[in-house]
Amino acid sequence: MLTEEVFRTDSYLKECEATVVSVNDLGGIILDRTNFYPTGGGQPGDTGILRLEDGGEITIATTVKGKGDENVVHVPAEGQEAPATGTKVVAVIDWERRYKHMQMHTALHLMCNVVPAGVTGNQIGTEKSRMDFDMGDEKLDKDTISQAVNALIDADHPTKIDYITDEELDAQPEIIPTMSVAPPRGAGRVRLMKIGDIDLQPCGGTHVSRTGEIQHIRVTKIESKGKRNRRVSIAFVD
Prior knowledge:
Radius of gyration: 19 Å
CATH class of the largest domain: Alpha Beta
Mean pLDDT: 91
Strand content: 35-45%
Largest sheet: 6 strands, antiparallel
Oligomer: single chain
Number of strands: 15
CATH architecture of the largest domain: 2-Layer Sandwich
CATH topology of the largest domain: Threonyl-tRNA Synthetase, Chain A, domain 2
């Protein structure tokens, strides 16, 4: 049984009730439903706790994708006792960490609007993130990108989750900015992230509801990573 991925529809859900379905051979905990995001798409997996009915807690060091029906695996910190199947828990994410990931992830989508090039990779962090672009010989300027992204933040564009069928996506390949990783298919529909009228692309990550929630960013570094690849690193402005 696949875990219900509650975070797909509500990125702001800080805790949710769940039941332990199983514990795999590596000690990973599988729940029937969860608000914990598993590592993927450049976004780190959530950390937090599973609160037990007796008041005890199991610390979750990270969350990853497993094999088969184990679409979300909660990895406990070392020394934690595995819960029995059927145990009732409250899954509580490290909200401060998650919220920064949400801000950063949405900021990177804004940067896709500012930098007119295909994306070849990205990595999200709580304080700094990066995105790689297939730029060729074109030059990028740190201040220009920073000012443009911050203007989109200040415009307070709403964000919205939508879905598209595999067939509809095949007919609109231009909405896929990432050149290195194809969006997941096979479930009949693909999750889309829409920011106002300025950005639309497949994405399974967690995002803020409006761009105005994002802290201002600054481009800290632009690096050449190969003949055509340019890496743009950003950080929150203090």
